Amino acid sequence: MSNDGQNHADRRSLREKDDDEDGSDVALPGASLRLSRRRFLAGTGLTAATTAVLEACKPAAVGGAGGKGAEVAGPGQVPVTLQVNGKERTVSLEPRATLAEVLRTDLGMTGTKVVCDRGACSACTVWLDGTPVCSCMTFAMDAVGRAITTVEGLSSGGALHPVQQAFVEHDAAQCGFCTPGMVMSCAALLQRNPRPTLDDVRTATSGNLCRCGTYPKVFEATLAAARRGSGGSSGAKGS
Amino acid sequence: MADENGKVAVQTGLVFPGGSSLSEVERAVPSDEPPPWPLNAELSVVGKPFPRLDGPLKVTGAATYTADVRLPGMLHARVIRSPHPHARVKNIDVTAAERHPAARAVHVLEHMRGGAKLRDPKQETPSKFPIVRYVGQPIAAIAAATPADAEEVMRLVKVDYEVLPFVVDLEEARKPDAPRVFPGATEQPATAGGGGAVPNVPQQGNVRGPTKTGPLGPPRGDVEKGFEEAEITVENTFRTAVQTHSALETHGVVADWKPEVLTVYASTQGTSTVRDELAEVFGLPKGKIRVVTEFMGGGFGSKFGIGNFGVLAVHLSKKASAPVRLMLDRKEEHVNGGNRPSSVQRLRVGAKKDGSLTAIHLTSWGTGGTATGAGAGNVAKNMYACPNILIEESDVFTNAGPAAAFRAPGHPQGAFALEQVIDELAEKLGMDPLALRDKIDIDEDLGGRNVDSAARRMERKIGSQKFDWARRKPAGSDRGPVKRGLGVAQSIWYRFIDLDASCEVRLLRDGTVEVLSAVQDIGTGIRTALAQVVAEELGLQPKDITVRVGDTAFPAGVPSGGSRTTGSITPAARNAAHEVRRRFLADVAASMGARPEALSLKGGKVLLGDDGGRGIPFRSAAAKLKTEQITASRSRAHDYGGFAPGRPGMNMGIGGFGGVQFAEVTVDTETGIIKVERVVAVHDCGRPINPLALESQINGGILQGISYALYENRVLDRRAGVQLNPNFEQYKVLGAREVPAIEVLLLEEYQGRSSTDAGGIGEPATVPTAAALANAVYNATGVRMTELPMTPARVLTALAAARKGAQ
Ligand code: FES
Ligand code: FES
User: Fold this and answer.
1) B58·A173 Cβ contact <8 A
2) In this structure, what DSSP letter does residue A12 have?
């Protein structure tokens, strides 16, 4: 085992599968790493990373990414324009950057949280064209041309989204670290199903981990928001 | 202690849904303390449910956690960690790393913080660098401009190890010829973050102990004699797994070293503990260190002190002259972030036919990796009245990451054993488990006192009604494959008080009211509780109060652990607010043509007498302040009447916090799957300040308890020493689908011990859950589950063994 072994084997296993040939990559120069990543981007397609994905939080499906003919980007910084909460944001990023990284680090939008960085907790949930995805499992480049909605973009004109309002009233946040992801999952649920049952809320949040155990209040709040008729009302559907 | 102004009459006792049992007692209240509050029913904001003040920030993503801190020029750090469970570091070559164009600083760790230490440091294996004792132990760290750069640079640090023999399995580690985790006897000194191990305990190989204790230190009575007197004896062995805290925000800091002041943003439960340890490690005066925790994403006991990661980050920041961000990743968090030790508990309880206990003997061992803390005996020591109690606890060292305090250390483990044995005893005696507890859960004085039994008696009563306990059938009555069962278990916790708990309250001329304290809000809602307490004193609403917490620039705050925050800090806030009130009324009295004593503050107004009509708005009154602001700062005073005797140095208040939880489960005897259908939880925590947040915290305690009981298990590869499930796919934590219906009933318990008489709920809420579930599983199936987690495989094995035994 190499002496960096503890830290990145997991991440690589998801995003850079073909870097892992012999486990002795301690002194791999950056260039060869990049080459590997490019191979990965061009060749394997995202479906390789989808095995551990939970309901209601899937990485973005990428049209035509697998196989021949895929466009090769990188390995260096690539300028891209993202549409975040209705605004065009141009950033220069490495093709390997996840949407979560770009939102948090490049755009300074830290409302979206990263907890597991591998699709197992949904803390990083954002919407792509109104559909919740794990931004830690989505390459930023694959979000180009799609409407990205983050927790910062859910409220409009200073007023909280009804789900956010209900979360506040029903105490559906303790430490609050899971909350942005929870809010995005629950608001998306009401968008597609304005009259959910308790079971629907459980299903919608089944991928959202909350270590403080705030679920009962999350259920309560989401059902209360639904009763108030929030579905789609202030839907930031790419707005 | 301040001078006392004699005795004040206070109401003590219980208020519960549908009734109360109260009496008046006299308490010595110091003259500088405000008069005791009446019951919550007579207060306007304290005791009423309030949504948290910081809710809007949390739901919009605007709340800034340590993980979110971004400073200009901030670098990103990574830690180089050992891949070996036991090794001597021969050489560390950082030249390639330092030569990388993106590298900004490299630091090699000189001393390991955390865990046990050799009693005699000379016994340590000779080595230039700290000996590696677990996979993932930090060796060095680097800082670079971007996270991606940091990853590249860290791979260039070359470490040569001499690999040493190791052991990670608990039973293997107990053997006399097992590889030694430490080459000699150990001690674990108390740190800013928590109590250490009992000193001077014998150690044989990896086994440190046993310590032999009873309720107040030494063993009580004579257990041999007690078992001779017993007419019935129940005995069993219980096992619990290692659980990781798994807070969603990992441990981490952003360190910003400047010549004038070191600022550290830390995800911590104790801003002051971080500052104190930084002062010690870096030889800085405390005044040159500022620690900030605006929001933090959970800790559950694991986040005190600066940690190795924090020391590394500060060194990197100093070397690079730039702020450095160092947050652990999820894998590092599982391995290095602390854990609840495992336990094996051999428990034997003797009783008379009428149920009274004659002897309790617990022998326990467990592993907290390279740390102590595996004791599981406190529940058996303190819950029930018994003249003969012997608790023998041992720590077994293994080559695994060090344990840390975890929500009621030792208690969920201990309750899992004791409450099942009591359940079994009741069955053997032909008594209802609640009736047996009515008999043995009593305040007694045999050199000490059980705590909180009066509250639990009431909790059993109202909980059993709510839960409809009467429908409980004999164990294993259901005929079908899916069997339903009901179980109950009890909680015990203590009134820890921290006197280093201070608040400043300010009233400004424009009517602004601020509360300032270094105390941090770890998700329990202390911000809102402080606002309620100050609002109550000043006749305002919580939203009128600006609360600034989580910054050591403010008055000293209590570390949030042991359910002590609310009980320690709210009296300081009330007392400071009371002083501001006094001076405020003195300032405005003249302009109202009244004497200050004739004025009161209510409903956002300054009132003359109790006549609601003749008041002036608070804000207009504030405009009459003689100076721009009135400021008062107060600290927590001793408990009225003093702390509990017999526990020196602990600041343990008299009385306690407890609860009773009822669980209803179904067990699918074909798949082994346990489903928790319903939990009724009845708890007490002194005077409730914000019932809404308390209910959330109790929900959380129950859900963590269910998760502990059914799913969580850290798995180490015994041949490599590596954790096999350092993630959230294979380390299973309860999710939305596993949440039962939960009903919370909260008692008000008045003890008349401080100016708010408030207490905490974090620990007691999680103590009894696994035990209640296990008792319910027994009631469903007639089979005892003696090992946590109660996985489907274990359920099926236990059912099969029972069938075999019956043949
Ligand atoms: S699923 Fe993205 S951070 Fe966990
Ligand atoms: S509120 Fe803390 S993790 Fe959900």
Assistant:
1) yes
2) H
Which member of B58, B158, B693 has the closest CB to residue A179? B58
- ipTM surpassing 0.90, yes or no? yes
Closest CA to A225 of A160, A178, A174: A160
B152 interaction partners in chain A (CB closer than 8 Å): 30, 33
Tell me what the pLDDT averaged over chain B comes to: 95
Q: Could you tell me the residue ranges of all domains in chain B? A: 410-417+426-497+639-708+737-807, 498-635
pLDDT tens for each residue of B431-476:
999 999 999 998 765 444 557 899 999 999 999 999 999 999 999 9
pTM: 0.93
Residue A92's domain comprises 79-239
Closest atom, ligand 1, to C-alpha of A209: 4
Question: Is a pLDDT exceeding 90 seen at residue A26?
Answer: no
Q: At what angle do helices A5-15 and B147-154 cross, to 10 degrees?
A: 120
Residue whose token pair is 């590394």 = B312
DSSP label at B371? B
The answer to whether position A211 is within a domain reads yes
Res B644: pLDDT: 78
Task: Report residue B57 as tokens.
Answer: 């920030």
Q: Which residues lie closer than 8 Å to A158 by C-beta, 6 or more apart? A: none
- Is residue A46 located within the same domain as residue A133? no
- As a whole number, the mean pLDDT across chain A is 77
From the CA of B297, give the closest atom in ligand 2.
2
Percent of chain B's residues with pLDDT above 90: 91
pLDDT (average), residues B599-620: 85
Of B51, B136, B742, which has the smallest distance from its Cβ to A6's Cβ?
Answer: B136
Give CATH for domain B498-635.
Answer: 3.30.365.10
pLDDT of B271-324, one tens digit each?
A: 999 999 999 999 999 999 999 999 999 999 999 999 999 999 999 999 999 999
- Estimate to the nearest angstrom the gap between the alpha carbon of B280 and the chain centroid: 25
3-state secondary structure of A113: coil
**HEC assignment per residue over B389-405:** EEEEEEEECCCCCCCCC
Provide the number of structural domains found in chain A.
2
Domain B410-417+426-497+639-708+737-807 in CATH 3.30.365.10: yes
Residue whose token pair is 């796919």 = B729
One-letter identity of residue A118:
R
Q: What sign has the CA pseudo-torsion B398, B404, B405, B407?
A: negative
Q: Is residue A62 part of a domain?
A: no
Tell me how far CA of residue B416 lies from CA of B359, B491, B709, in angstroms: 18, 11, 9
- C-alpha A232 to ligand 1 mean position (Å): 25
Q: From the CB of A176, is ligand 2 less than 6 Å away? A: yes
- Measure the CA–CA gap between B354 and B435, rounded to whole angstroms: 11
Q: Is residue A67 part of a domain?
A: no
Give the three-state DSSP class for B146: coil
Question: Cα Rg for chain B, rounded, in angstroms?
Answer: 27
Q: How confident is the model at residue A125 (pLDDT cuts 50, 70, 90)?
A: very high
Strands B75-81 and B324-327: parallel
B627 has a pLDDT exceeding 60 = yes
At residue A28, does pLDDT exceed 60?
A: no
- A205 and A148 in one domain? yes
Whether A108 contacts chain B with CB within 8 A: yes
A5, A12 contact by CB (below 8 A): no
CATH topology agreement for domains B410-417+426-497+639-708+737-807 and B498-635: yes
Nearest Cα to A12, choosing from A71, A93, A138, A96?
A: A96
Q: Please give the residue that has the higher pLDDT: either B478 or B654.
A: B478
Give the number of other CB atoms < 10 A from CB of residue B481.
10
**Residue of A212, A217, A218, A219 for testing the chain B interface, max B β-carbons within 10 Å:** A212
Closest ligand 2 atom to B298 CA: 2
Between B61, B136, B703, which is nearest A151 by CB?
Answer: B61
